[in-house]
Amino acid sequence: MTNSERNRKNIIYILGMQPVFNYKAVYADMTEDYVSPMEPEKFSQVTLRFRTGRSNVDDVYISVRGGMIKMVKASSEGQFDYYEGQISLEDKPFFYHFEMVLGNIRVSYGRSGLEDSASCRDEFRLIPGLKTPEWSRGAVMYQIFTDRFYNGDPDNDVLDHEYYYLDAYSERVSDWNAPPNSMDVRRFYGGDLKGVIDKLPYLKEIGIDAIYFNPLFVSPSNHKYDIQDYDHIDPHYGVIVEDGGECLVDSVENRYASKYIKRVTNKRNLEAGNELFAELVRIAHSMGIKVIIDGVFNHCGSFNKWLDREKIYEHEEGYESGAYVSADSPYRSFFHFYDEKQWPDNGSYDGWWGHATLPKLNYEDSPALCEYILNVARKWVSPPYNADGWRLDVAADLGHTPEFNHRFWHDFRQAVREANPEAIVLAEHYGDAESWISNGEWDTVMNYDAFMEPISFFLTGMQKHSDEYRPDLINNPMAFWGAMRVHRRQFSGGSGLCAMNELSNHDHSRFLTRTNRMVGRVDKLGPEAAEKGVNKAVMREAVLFQMTWPGAPTIYYGDEAGLCGFTDPDNRRTYPWGNEDFELIDYHRACIRIHKENRELLTGSMIPVPIEGDDEGILSFARFNRDGASIIILNNNTYDVEWCGDVWIAGIPSECRLKRLLITYADGFSTETTECTVSRGKLKITVPATGGMILNHRTPTQHLLY
């Protein structure tokens, strides 16, 4: 029994064991139907709304710190009454909950639902002035690991022995379909920005709203989280207009890697890459596709021009001495050196997690570094580049104290928004991000805790790296809803509606591989094992959930085409051009279309749908707004289930017909529409094994709630 269920039973007990209090009807959240405006300005007025059962309570109050505001019954519709009340905001967070009065009994309602006392422990929270870009709410995003997406320009490919990195030479992989190997960071398949431009029509056709790129800046690795130059796109992803020099043959010293040095330091190459990126964004925008880029600001790379451990820039015109090379470098304060007497060639700098190839940036001691990075933040979201936002790598690690971290990200987001008011700032973060979100430092996060992990455990029992199988969590709705209740609390206003909801990404195993419930990694099991025994029906369940759950559904390139892979580096296989699973692509296209055609799936409220009987292996919830409702049912059991649920809870009339928009089952899926009957507020329907469905009701215009 969940805490919420216990509270409901306690409430009924308080009322003398009489089920007179319709607890299922009570609802409020922080979406636009219940908070208007949803993201208010400072010193403004806000209308709060609250739903109860029709003629079911005596009074409703907004309980604020310091008083109570009585709400008025604004309208009645179907089985519900809707109460309204106005509040006045200042320039600080505003906390509130609701209290219902029935006779001499008071019952509280906060973010976690009903509580059986007036002292609500989990209040709603409004942050005046905190706004998320409207375009990002419910946007369908597509993550691209550029080297593995598509090779549009073979002339810019990294060559064999072009340079030396991590104890081996760079390698050009000639077979596009070859799997990554265990030490993959210096192996390149040739994907580039021209390749992305070539495939933009494909992304547009399946319904993508935004691209999120893994890092694009100059770097010696294929993942590029060891950035060499924040000011320029890597010419190996861009354009090489001036080539020359030699690859390394007998040497492992990159100061002799004249071809690499020519390619990545020549200003014509660098500017040509920047111009190509600007052109990509321009074309994407013309197709209605936004572009988000990856910011790696906690650390850089040992190749970085500020450090220049490899002495790549030492003799190149237009570059200052690096801090590794010279104590007089203008970048000396950008890094923390433990030994102040080692120059030249001072290798005593602080490395992130001790990695010499990942020097940690020393913000607290360098105002110049802070300003440099803030200028980088502004540059790429401004003309001529016009990127639509930043994803921040290991954002909570930046700096050396929490106080500085929060101050810097506040300044960063402010700089981005001043340059581009519609740009998003979202962070990679594991754990509770509430303090960063509520303080106006991040708009939202990559949604591991309130999306990727709960649905992965429910549908597959697998941890997101495929490192553990949890039989106690698979098909366990109580564990799923408990995790969601806890972790969704971090979001305020629109932040939950634009959270990046991924099933897979570059750091975790592919979701399709998790469906085989095989624990392990590629170095022990081999790449073939990632494809063995996978279950596409479970993958379809996951995609159905992804496209209907609150947030921005984000597809990791190739997931829609059936790509498999264990965790890093196997999850970075090349897109299977010519070997796509077109049925799975068609399924993604259909789910995306339904997601975008029904506004409640973009920005609407969410509520679990109570069902009769055993709920093992079943997830059912509703997304709804004043215009309509969608009922989503997943059956992860290996047998059909006769499902009966209280769909009236989503504002669906007690007697009506619902339209089935999509059904998925063990052997496939269908978008053929059929109708089913709601009687006395309940829907009874057969949900196929390892399947799911989306059922829809539209509210006639004359019956709008508000």
Outline the fold blueprint:
Blueprint: H1 3-14, E1 35-36, E2 45-53, E3 59-64, E4 67-70, E5 72-77, E6 80-88, E7 94-102, E8 105-110, E9 113-115, E10 124-126, E11 141-144, E12 164-165, E13 168-169, E14 171-172, E15 187-188, H2 193-206, E16 210-213, E17 217-218, E18 229-233, H3 258-265, H4 267-286, E19 290-295, H5 367-381, E20 389-392, H6 402-419, E21 424-427, H7 434-438, E22 444-445, H8 448-460, H9 477-487, E23 500-502, H10 511-514, H11 522-525, H12 536-546, E24 552-556, H13 582-597, H14 600-603, E25 605-608, E26 618-625, E27 628-635, E28 641-646, E29 656-665, E30 668-670, E31 674-679, E32 682-687, E33 691-698
Parallel strand pairs: 11-16, 11-24, 14-15, 16-19, 19-20, 20-21, 21-22, 23-24
Antiparallel strand pairs: 1-2, 2-6, 3-4, 3-7, 5-6, 7-8, 7-10, 8-9, 12-13, 17-18, 25-26, 26-27, 27-33, 28-32, 29-30, 29-31, 29-33, 31-32
Helix pairs in contact: 2-4, 5-6, 8-9, 8-12, 12-13
Number of strands: 33
Name the helicity range: 10-25%
What composes the largest sheet? 9 strands, antiparallel
- The value of Rg in angstroms is 27 Å
Structural class: alpha+beta
- The CATH architecture term of the domain at 3-126 is Sandwich
- In CATH terms, the superfamily of the domain at 3-126 is Immunoglobulins
- Within the CATH hierarchy, at the fold level, what is the topology of the domain at 3-126? Immunoglobulin-like
Give the overall pLDDT as a whole number. 94
- The CATH class of the domain at 3-126: Mainly Beta
Percentage beta strand: 15-25%
Uncertain parts:
1-19, 702-706
Query: What sort of overall outline do the alpha carbons produce when their principal axes are compared?
Result: globular
Number of helices: 14
